[in-house]
Design a protein that fits this description.
By secondary structure, this protein is mainly α. Helices cover 73% and strands 2% of the residues. It is built from nine helices and two strands. A two-stranded antiparallel sheet has the order 1-2.
């Protein structure tokens, strides 16, 4: 009888549990970025280590879409800013990492996830995911190389330290993320 007197839409009644579910997905996705960021191969000739962090950001963006991907990457940065050991162990950690040699890449993570997710939301296919990955990587390297150019006072040094050593690995990461995101999105 109470339901008849006060009709409630199903969407409104289910919203709190859906919000909790979405928050849980974002937190878990951010944790995936943390784990992958801790997997590092320091290179002796560059201050920028080879890490799987950007692979995870790309994968999260392609799989979860623009909003949740952005939120997961921003949460990752917030955890790092609070001093949690989430960044690459090759760097100083905390705020210092957000101002160090890899800062441009780190600050580009939310943009990277958003762009990849936004393009992938327009249609699920390997080709679209591949294009989204390339665009997202361009944004990542635009941020990273710009920051390195400011620090080194040279675009050539920035490219030497932050682009050339990573080119092949990035191609592999984009292809792997594009394929993996298709499977993960179908299972969600």
């Amino acid at each position: 009888m109470l339901k008849a007197a006060f009709p409630v839409q199903a969407g409104v009644a289910e919203r709190p549990s859906s919000l909790v579910k979405q928050a849980g997905i974002v937190i878990c996705a951010s944790a995936v970025i943390v784990v992958c960021s801790r997997l590092v191969l320091p290179l002796p000739y560059t201050p920028v280590p080879l890490t799987l962090g950007n692979f995870a950001v790309l994968l999260v963006g392609l799989t979860l879409g623009s909003r949740r991907g952005f939120a997961a990457a921003a949460l990752y940065l917030a955890w790092g800013a609070m001093g949690m050991p989430v960044f690459s162990p090759a760097g100083p950690g905390g705020i210092a990492q957000l101002l160090g040699s890899t800062a441009g890449y780190l600050w580009a993570y939310p943009v990277m996830a958003f762009l990849a997710g936004w393009i992938a939301e327009r249609g699920a296919s390997f080709t679209r995911n591949l294009a989204a990955g390339v665009v997202a990587e361009l944004a990542l390297f635009a941020g990273g190389l710009s920051w390195l150019a400011v620090m080194t006072h040279s675009w050539q040094r920035a490219a030497f330290f932050g682009l050339y050593p990573f080119f092949f690995a990035e191609v592999v990461k984009v292809m792997l993320a594009a394929a993996t995101a298709l499977r993960l999105r179908r299972s969600l």
